[in-house]
Amino acid sequence: MSIASRINYRRIIAAILILIPLIIYIDLPSYNSVNPELLGVPFFYWYQTLWLALSAIIFAVAAILLYWGEKS
Asked: Per residue in 55-67, pLDDT tens?
């Protein structure tokens, strides 16, 4: 595998990872409900909070894929 194809492969994976939270957030009707509750918090709020944390992890992985091994 050449270096150029490896870089393109990493960019494609990073782009897919970045698109996952976007698609989840845009699909509002799928999580626009009150039930089930988690510790008294409606589903709508804890689902968004969960995806906020997951998005941070996903974006960090995408950044590592894009910039790992680059010299400043």
From this structure: 999 999 999 988 8
In a domain, 72, yes or no: no
Structural contact between residues 62 and 52, judged by C-beta atoms closer than 8 angstroms: no
Name the CA radius of gyration of the chain, rounded: 17
Q: Which domain holds residue 22?
A: 3-67
Distance between CA 47 and CA 70 in Å, rounded?
A: 35
pLDDT digits (tens, 9 = 90+) for 16-52: 999 999 998 888 777 777 788 878 888 888 888 899 9
Query: Nearest 5 degrees, angle CA 46-CA 49-CA 51?
Result: 110
Give the containing element (helix H, strand E) for 63: helix 43-67
The number of domains in the chain is: 1
